[in-house]
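Lab notebook, bench 4. Still working through the backlog of constructs that have no structural model yet. Next entry is a single chain of 128 residues. Request: give me the structure tokens for it.
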Amino acid sequence: QVQLVESGGGLVQAGGSLRLSCAASGRTFGRYGMGWFRQAPGKEREFAAAISWSGGSTYYADSVKGRFTISRDNAKNTVVLQMNSLKPEDTAVYYCAASGKSHISVVVLTTPDEYDYWGQGTQVTVSS
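Model written out:
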């Protein structure tokens, strides 16, 4: 079992940057594909970025491509989402998630159903 705790959210002006971190418990962290999702008020949870168990493959939603970067450190059981050039429409609660389907391509890890564990979320607010 994996427990996930996000941190790093906050309030930032448009054009600014934030760095979200997700700390995972458990000795099998390196076996999981990891993803970041976000959910704005009144909207469904949407995919932002995913990374393979090794960190060798990443995949991004079109809405964040070129602005967000996902990375992981398996030795430290952490996954990071670096968010640059933030826009007001990036405002949402951001969730870290772990998928036991590490054998499949990260391109498939784009829906909540592919994930087994979730963090509690961290709020990101981008002011215009």
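Notes after review: The radius of gyration is 13 Å. The chain has a mean pLDDT of 95. Flag for follow-up if needed.
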